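User: For my dataset I need records formatted as: sequence, then C-alpha coordinates, nothing else. Please produce one.
Assistant:
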Amino acid sequence: MQLRKIIPVLALAAAVSATTVACSAAAPERPASETTDAAAGQTTEGGPEFCEVLLSDTSTAATVFVVMIPDMNGDVDLAGRAELVDRIESVPDGLEDDLETWRGYLDAVAANVDDPAAVFAAHTDEVEAAGSALFDAYTDSCL
Protein backbone atom coordinates (compact mmCIF):
# COMPACT_ATOMS: atom_id res chain seq x y z
CA MET A 1 0.00 0.00 0.00
CA GLN A 2 2.79 2.44 0.91
CA LEU A 3 4.68 1.65 -2.31
CA ARG A 4 1.69 2.78 -4.42
CA LYS A 5 1.87 6.18 -2.77
CA ILE A 6 5.65 6.52 -3.11
CA ILE A 7 5.97 5.59 -6.81
CA PRO A 8 3.99 8.61 -8.14
CA VAL A 9 5.99 10.94 -5.88
CA LEU A 10 9.27 9.47 -7.13
CA ALA A 11 8.10 9.76 -10.74
CA LEU A 12 7.20 13.41 -10.22
CA ALA A 13 10.55 14.11 -8.55
CA ALA A 14 12.39 12.46 -11.45
CA ALA A 15 10.44 14.52 -14.00
CA VAL A 16 11.19 17.78 -12.18
CA SER A 17 14.85 16.85 -11.87
CA ALA A 18 15.12 15.98 -15.58
CA THR A 19 13.42 19.24 -16.56
CA THR A 20 15.78 21.25 -14.36
CA VAL A 21 18.83 19.55 -15.85
CA ALA A 22 17.53 20.06 -19.40
CA CYS A 23 16.85 23.74 -18.81
CA SER A 24 20.26 24.25 -17.23
CA ALA A 25 21.99 22.49 -20.10
CA ALA A 26 20.09 24.53 -22.70
CA ALA A 27 21.03 27.89 -21.20
CA PRO A 28 23.93 29.41 -23.12
CA GLU A 29 26.96 30.31 -21.07
CA ARG A 30 28.33 33.85 -21.39
CA PRO A 31 31.71 35.06 -20.31
CA ALA A 32 31.59 37.17 -17.12
CA SER A 33 32.55 40.23 -19.19
CA GLU A 34 29.34 40.03 -21.21
CA THR A 35 25.98 41.38 -20.16
CA THR A 36 22.61 41.42 -21.85
CA ASP A 37 21.25 44.77 -22.97
CA ALA A 38 17.66 44.39 -21.81
CA ALA A 39 16.39 47.27 -23.94
CA ALA A 40 17.68 45.81 -27.19
CA GLY A 41 17.81 42.16 -26.18
CA GLN A 42 21.41 42.03 -27.37
CA THR A 43 24.59 40.97 -25.66
CA THR A 44 27.15 43.72 -25.17
CA GLU A 45 30.79 43.45 -24.17
CA GLY A 46 31.94 44.80 -20.82
CA GLY A 47 30.05 45.87 -17.73
CA PRO A 48 27.92 48.94 -18.48
CA GLU A 49 28.23 51.94 -16.19
CA PHE A 50 24.50 51.55 -15.46
CA CYS A 51 25.19 48.24 -13.71
CA GLU A 52 28.33 49.46 -12.00
CA VAL A 53 26.42 52.28 -10.30
CA LEU A 54 23.47 50.12 -9.27
CA LEU A 55 25.64 47.26 -8.04
CA SER A 56 27.63 49.67 -5.90
CA ASP A 57 24.59 49.96 -3.58
CA THR A 58 22.41 46.90 -4.02
CA SER A 59 20.21 47.61 -1.02
CA THR A 60 19.10 50.93 -2.52
CA ALA A 61 19.08 49.56 -6.06
CA ALA A 62 16.58 46.89 -5.01
CA THR A 63 13.93 49.60 -4.57
CA VAL A 64 15.24 52.52 -6.62
CA PHE A 65 12.77 51.89 -9.48
CA VAL A 66 9.77 51.11 -7.26
CA VAL A 67 7.04 53.73 -6.97
CA MET A 68 6.40 55.40 -3.65
CA ILE A 69 3.12 54.57 -1.92
CA PRO A 70 2.37 57.02 0.89
CA ASP A 71 2.12 55.41 4.32
CA MET A 72 3.01 52.00 2.85
CA ASN A 73 6.74 52.25 2.23
CA GLY A 74 7.80 52.83 5.83
CA ASP A 75 11.06 54.68 6.21
CA VAL A 76 12.00 55.24 2.56
CA ASP A 77 15.39 56.73 1.74
CA LEU A 78 14.26 59.03 -1.06
CA ALA A 79 17.50 60.98 -0.90
CA GLY A 80 19.47 57.74 -1.32
CA ARG A 81 17.34 56.70 -4.29
CA ALA A 82 17.75 60.11 -5.93
CA GLU A 83 21.50 60.12 -5.30
CA LEU A 84 21.87 56.67 -6.85
CA VAL A 85 19.84 57.64 -9.92
CA ASP A 86 21.81 60.88 -10.27
CA ARG A 87 25.05 58.87 -10.41
CA ILE A 88 23.81 56.97 -13.47
CA GLU A 89 25.34 58.70 -16.48
CA SER A 90 24.45 56.15 -19.14
CA VAL A 91 21.72 53.56 -19.54
CA PRO A 92 21.12 50.76 -22.03
CA ASP A 93 20.08 52.09 -25.44
CA GLY A 94 16.54 53.38 -25.57
CA LEU A 95 16.17 54.08 -21.85
CA GLU A 96 17.52 57.63 -21.74
CA ASP A 97 14.04 59.21 -21.63
CA ASP A 98 12.93 56.67 -19.04
CA LEU A 99 15.80 57.66 -16.77
CA GLU A 100 14.87 61.35 -17.06
CA THR A 101 11.21 60.54 -16.37
CA TRP A 102 12.22 58.56 -13.29
CA ARG A 103 14.49 61.37 -12.05
CA GLY A 104 11.56 63.78 -12.39
CA TYR A 105 9.33 61.39 -10.48
CA LEU A 106 11.79 61.07 -7.59
CA ASP A 107 12.12 64.88 -7.46
CA ALA A 108 8.33 65.29 -7.40
CA VAL A 109 7.93 62.74 -4.63
CA ALA A 110 10.73 64.27 -2.55
CA ALA A 111 9.17 67.72 -2.90
CA ASN A 112 5.73 66.44 -1.86
CA VAL A 113 6.54 63.58 0.51
CA ASP A 114 4.11 64.94 3.13
CA ASP A 115 1.26 65.28 0.61
CA PRO A 116 -0.08 61.81 -0.29
CA ALA A 117 -2.34 63.21 -3.02
CA ALA A 118 0.62 64.85 -4.76
CA VAL A 119 2.68 61.66 -4.46
CA PHE A 120 -0.13 59.65 -6.06
CA ALA A 121 -0.54 62.31 -8.78
CA ALA A 122 3.16 62.06 -9.62
CA HIS A 123 2.72 58.34 -10.36
CA THR A 124 1.56 58.55 -13.97
CA ASP A 125 1.40 55.83 -16.61
CA GLU A 126 4.60 57.27 -18.10
CA VAL A 127 6.36 57.02 -14.73
CA GLU A 128 5.11 53.45 -14.27
CA ALA A 129 6.42 52.46 -17.72
CA ALA A 130 9.78 54.17 -17.11
CA GLY A 131 10.25 52.50 -13.73
CA SER A 132 9.33 49.10 -15.16
CA ALA A 133 11.71 49.48 -18.11
CA LEU A 134 14.58 50.56 -15.87
CA PHE A 135 13.88 47.80 -13.34
CA ASP A 136 13.79 45.21 -16.15
CA ALA A 137 17.10 46.50 -17.51
CA TYR A 138 18.62 46.30 -14.03
CA THR A 139 17.44 42.74 -13.36
CA ASP A 140 18.15 41.46 -16.89
CA SER A 141 21.52 43.14 -17.40
CA CYS A 142 23.02 43.47 -13.96
CA LEU A 143 21.82 40.56 -11.86
